[in-house]
Amino acid sequence: MASGSDRNPIIIGGLPSQVPDFDPEETQEWLDSLDAAVDERGRERARYLMLRLIERAREKRVAVPEMRSTDYVNTIATKDEPFFPGNEEIERKILNATRWNAAVMVSRAQRPGIGVGGHIATFASSASLYDVGFNHFFRGKDEGDGGDQVFFQGHASPGIYARAFLLDRLGEAHLDGFRQEKSKAPNGLSSYPHPRLMPDFWEFPTVSMGLGPIGAIYQARMNRYMEARDIADTSKSHVWAFLGDGEMDEPESLGQLSLAAREGLDNLTFVVNCNLQRLDGPVRGNGKIMQELESYFRGAGWNVIKLVWDRSWDPLLAQDRDGVLVNKLNTTPDGQFQTYATETGAYIRDHFFGGDHRLRAMVENMTDEQILHLGRGGHDHRKVYAAYKAAKEHKGQPTVILAQTVKGWTLGPNFEGRNATHQMKKLTVEDLKRFRDRLHLPIPDKDLEEGPPPYYHPGRDTEEIQYMHDRRKELGGYVPTRVDRSKPLNLPEDKTYAAVKKGSGQQQIATTMAFVRLLKDLMRDKEIGKRFVLIAPDEYRTFGMDSFFPSAKIYNPLGQLYESVDRELLLAYKESPNGQMLHDGISEAGCTASLIAAGSAYATHGEPLIPIYVFYSMFGFQRTGDQFWQMGDQLARGFVLGATAGRTTLTGEGLQHADGHSQLLASTNPACVAYDPAFGFEIAHIVRDGLRRMYGENAEDIFYYLTVYNEPIQQPAEPENVDVEGILQGLHRYQPGENGAIPAQILASGVAVPWAVEAQRILAEEWNVKADIWSATSWNELRREAVEVEKHNLLHPEEEQRVPYVTRKLQGAEGPVLAVSDWMRSVPDQIARWVPGTYQSLGADGFGFADTRGAARRFFHIDAQSIVLGVLTELAKEGKIDRSALKQAVDRYQLLDVTAADPGAAGGDA
Do residues 103 and 97 lie in contact, with contact meaning Cβ atoms separated by under 8 Å? Predict the structure, then answer.
């Protein structure tokens, strides 16, 4: 690997404009030489000489300006291509069989009565890109390590299944079960790469476009992180991400390129399949997407390899002495190249070569058929191999390979290069015959004319199938394969949680700080301490986690090359090559990608990591919710902390910063176990159980979401005979009512529990109401359990009917039930149907705003006095008190005047 200074230059390609000329005569000689080259040999020759000089300067490590884009030709010259070690004839047969089976699988899935669809054009364009990887580059996991991590393009999944079929990893029943996961179980195949649905096959979910690229970057970075911290030897692992050119318009696709360059991730290769088409049309009809992407990647500091043309272009380019052909390639827009892919050789002769006599002369001895087959580089095994080999050997930078292909390649004139190709799913009999002939497959006409088209397998003992097995054996096993070699962790003893359970005494701390204190004790554990991965988007100090800086340190592969401005402080900012904290900057998407990579390390590398991702709660599920689905799909585990939670706690920030809904969004993710704890002792039990469920025996593929707050209170000690089961199930009685005669029940969560406690006091002292206070640690888990109970009862009517936990818990609790939280009412209303008796809720529905906490809570009518009114209202409905008491309460507490509310504690951080 290149040295740190080589990998991370502060200035790239700067010109020495302020440097004095110490030898003007020599300078003039160079300028005269350039003038002579232009005058005598022309501008094209002079341009060529200048480019060669720049190339040589880079070889000599002379700093010269970067070229943001180069000519529309292959980066690797023909003379520089390495020897191709494979048997190209056999590989072509393998690929032809794979192409056929991929297309037939989708076509059969579209038959009447099934009609589940699929995509065939993407794989058709990228088939050679995958095949060369499978035969020569992708490392498997048989050597006991993580092998290579390959992010397959989602729409290419039929081709990956088709190859697995040839290798007997899948049978015909599996291919016929494509997109029929339940009806054809256990042989059903998921539509796209879904590890949760096929946990022994797929590793990385990628079809939500844009998440594959950012996921691959942070996976490569996580590999380096794990090696730097002596957790796993990832030195042999290479990350490959197969992407579409249209997909690169997603912000996540390009948003973190600089991280990969900054950290010198030469263990990462992007392969962008530039078939020039989106789902419904050209990517850049009037421009050139490969040139545009080249500029992006070069500007971000990546090594760029363009793979534009196949070997049939080599003789033409070799005779292009005056650059007319290169100029034509440079100036022809993508939309026109897409048209050429659908036209005849005669059309190409007239429209591409016909405009200049020099171009016409180049092809005068070529037939129209030969011109038609001037191909794209992404379909040429030798060219692809050269690009991959160069990428693997390049040091100090990540590499992107921009490979031009034709969408729907080999599928015939009705598919190739057509705008509608992405939606075309079924081949006609004539399409099948042309396709078969193009691939030279021995399939009789009658097999195509009667019933669904057949799959093709040349035979297990044939040369090509043995070749496939041999190549995979040489490369360490089959890909894709997901293996979980991890072992359960030895989890901390109870004493680790003791300090948090004691409460905070006279000190006031928020639940965020309570969690941080617990985390500090957990990180001291000799068994699991080093496995914690701390992740935050530039907000460690906000969350009170700067105390970790001196000991855990911030991960940076370069270390710290400067003196920190706060170096004399106890909690100084400290970077280290083996730091434990990931400080990913202001990028929630980047942090979540780190979370996913760390949370799935138990399977990727057989070494469990415990990610702790802390962020402003409204920038979690609200902003990166798609990635949390990706996390669930990838079976990643870990803790997600939505800090500064609630609609009224971050009072000075205003509308967008007021989270009253992330718990509701979290409830939609089946992999997410979400809690809204009120106190440190609840957090202790939740975290302890989370570690057990995710990292103990029989580990579950889930992740935890805890909303914590920035409102300091005196954290109470754990009550005697605390209801641990209730805390974990989602509801426990925190403080029974002691005074008053009229019974009622108040359910509260998170920061609202202290308001409920205050309301309990007022109700007893002023209204003779005896209210029990319940801490609803998880509205979501209560609902989830109740839904499962109802589902069981629905399908087992003959059995004794089960009762949901929340119903059993509140059975016998006297009086109406009022629920309150700092969330919109939809959050507590999740359990309404299962609560016995009268149920009502208060919540912070509507947009947030900047004001004092007291004013905000009075406005939403969720403060203690509003809770009092809510309880009285329900009691009045039941005839337990006179309705006149309600107007008295409104007037007494001035509930219609936000300025009358106690402002409360000032807004703070952790």
Answer: no
- Contact call for residues 793 and 616 (beta carbons, < 8 A): no
The phi and psi torsions of 558 (rounded to 5 degrees) equal: -90, -5
Contact assessment for residue 481 and residue 201, using Cβ atoms and an 8 Å cutoff: yes
Note the pLDDT tens digit of each residue in 400-428: 999 999 998 888 887 776 765 555 567 88
Q: How many residues does the chain have?
A: 910
Predicted local distance difference test score (pLDDT) of residue 2? 42
Q: Are 754 and 713 in contact, with CB atoms under 8 Å apart? A: yes
Running DSSP on this structure, what letter comes out for residue 244? E
Q: What is the pLDDT of residue 173?
A: 97
Helices and strands in the chain, H and E counts: 36, 20
What pLDDT is stored for residue 803 in this prediction?
A: 98
Res 701: pLDDT:
98
Contact (Cβ atoms closer than 8 angstroms) between residue 510 and residue 542:
no
Q: Which residues contact 423 (CB under 8 A, 6 or more apart)?
A: 279, 280
239-244 and 732-735 beta bridge pairing: unpaired
H-only helix segments in 120-199: 121-136, 157-166, 172-175
263's enclosing H/E stretch is none
Q: Is the separation of the CB atoms in 221 and 260 below 8 Å?
A: yes
Q: Are 512 and 544 in contact (CB under 8 A)?
A: yes
Q: Name, in order, each residue with C-beta under 8 angstroms of 639's C-beta and a sequence gap of 6 or more.
A: 610, 611, 612, 613, 687, 690, 703, 704, 706
Residue 552 token pair: 């855990």
Asked whether the beta carbons of 290 and 377 are under 8 A apart, the reply is no
Report pLDDT digits (tens) over 119-175. Answer: 888 999 999 999 999 999 999 999 999 999 999 999 999 999 999 999 999 999 999
Q: Which of 820, 837, 816, 839 lies closest to 828 in space, CA to CA? A: 820
Residue with tokens 């899935």: 109
- Residues 573/564, Cβ–Cβ less than 8 Å: yes
Q: Which two tokens stand for residue 56?
A: 């040589």
**Nearest one of 845, 726, 826, 705 to 775, comparing CA atoms:** 726
Phi and psi for 177 in degrees, rounded to 5? -95, 15
Q: Would the pTM count as exceeding 0.85? A: yes
CB atoms under 10 Å from CB of 337, counted, come to 20
Q: Would you call 781 helix, strand, or coil by DSSP?
A: helix
Angle at which helix 157-166 crosses helix 121-136, to 10 degrees, equals 50
DSSP string, 482-527: ---------PPPGGGGHHHHT--TT-EE-HHHHHHHHHHHHHT-TT
Among candidates 634, 43, 121, 129, which has minimal Cα distance to 426? 121
Task: Give the residues across from 536 on adjacent strands.
Answer: 583
Task: Kindly give the parts of the chain with pLDDT less than 50.
Answer: 1-5, 910
Integer Cα distance of 391 and 267 in angstroms: 9
Q: What one-character-per-residue DSSP string does 591-640 give?
A: HHHHHHHHHTHHHHTS---EEEEEEEGGGSHHHHHHHHHHHHHTT---EE
- Helix (H) / strand (E) containing 583: strand 581-583
Taking a C-beta distance cutoff of 8 angstroms, is the pair 410, 439 a contact? yes
Say which DSSP state 379 is in: G
